[in-house]
From TrEMBL:
Domain of life: Bacteria
Name the record gives this protein: Dihydrolipoyl dehydrogenase
Pyridine nucleotide-disulphide oxidoreductase dimerisation domain segment(s): 360-469
Cellular localisation: Cytoplasm
Lineage: Bacteria, Pseudomonadati, Pseudomonadota, Betaproteobacteria, Burkholderiales
Catalytic activity: N(6)-[(R)-dihydrolipoyl]-L-lysyl-[protein] + NAD(+) = N(6)-[(R)-lipoyl]-L-lysyl-[protein] + NADH + H(+)
GO molecular function, one term: flavin adenine dinucleotide binding
Pfam families named among the record's database cross-references: Pyr_redox_2 (PF07992), Pyr_redox_dim (PF02852)
Residues that coordinate or bind FAD: K58, G122, T153, G154, S155, D326, M332, L333, A334, H335
Natural source organism: Malikia granosa
Enzyme Commission number(s) from the entry: 1.8.1.4
One GO location term (cellular component): cytoplasm
Coarse class of the protein's main subcellular location: cytoplasm
GO biological process, alphabetically ordered: 2-oxoglutarate metabolic process
Amino acid sequence: MSKQFDVIVIGAGPGGYIAAIRAAQLGFQVACIDEWTNAAGGAAPGGTCTNVGCIPSKALLQSSEHFDHANHHFAEHGISTGNVKMDVAKMIARKDNVVKQNNDGILYLFKKNKVSFFHGRGSFVKAVEGGYEIKVAGKAEETLVGKQVIVATGSNARALPNVPFDEVNVLSNDGALRVGAVPKKLAVIGSGVIGLEMGSVWRRLGSEVTILEGLPTFLGAVDEQIAKEAKKAFDKQGLKIELGVKVGEIKTVKKGRNTEVSIAYTNAKGEEVKLDADKLIVSIGRVPNTNGLNVEAVGLQLDERGAIVVDGDCKTNLPGVWAVGDVVRGPMLAHKAEEEGVAVAERIAGQHGHVNFNTIPWVIYTSPEIAWVGRTEQQLKADGVKYKAGSFPFLANGRARALGDTTGLVKFLADAQTDEILGVHIVGPMASELIAEAVVAMEFRASAEDIARICHAHPSLSEATKEAALAVDKRTLNF
């Protein structure tokens, strides 16, 4: 006997669990299916973000930053630390506990909101009268029927051709979060978010890190001025980043009791280079995950990338079937998935869900942090948009000096005629938090002058945001 629901959500990552909760809040009978399993065999909802992405990586970044500060910065504050050691096993255990707290928190929210949770893999069986039959393959197989289905199955790490992840020597983001000891030499292919964040973690703990990037420019999606500032900081820290390389053969080689990874590549000068490393992290992007979804059974349409085809409202080609997050077009960001999940639940209820792709913030949680929203200067130039720019360095910010972290700047881009904010770009301390003000401003179509006229607390890092807005009109007060 199948169990009947108004809404079935397949996947309990940020898009899925949020969609399920919002749908339940709107009065629907909701089921959410997810197959993530923890080490003890229990349910681990939260998807890639909670289990092997956003949350655990931030836990390791925080631990490694504490270690780095104790070794290199506490002395400036008059703090003597002696011989500082890192217990990697304890660091990983703390990370695992942070993940579990988030898993348990989602299960609690399901219970609180009366969402029926099913632990297993969800897949389409067939269309039935008034909805779709969904199979749950888990410890106990279940058959559900839903009037509406939201697919939120996320994405998987992209592997290099002929170089599968073994998660021991050749690592995806998953394996990179479970390294048991500090590797002496670490190679990273791809200088995107995952490569930079994981490279930063292990560099701080003592690894000699080399990042190989195929593109000739560093962080091509980031505003060029911001990317250059970040690159200078990473170079100073000892993070070796090689641009414009062409990766060749990669093989694992036995060296006594250990196994090394040998990477052959051609550098930007055309020279043949061989890099030997203890571990290799491959971070060359992610691919939509429709594995085991059985889309053929119902004729759910995929595009050439393997993503589920949706319109602007996240509707698929099938009536009553929606898709959100990494498995559809658009940026693969947890908060984008959440916004789409809420919007779809509200659309099912006949409301007008809202997602504005132009005001989705991006963050790289390195040190310095990098965050931005809206268009870059190079995009505005390419589009022929007349604009004004203003920037302010953290070097001139009192709170940044007190923190001992004055790297970076805040940059505003505003329309030359209307002064409407077109983009805000930050590299520096707490950029991930500072960007929120810019997102709010852009969502309300504020001008740079609006931010310049708002009183900001002193001393605070946010004063750099105000000063950058003032700089658009060439009237900074503290620089």
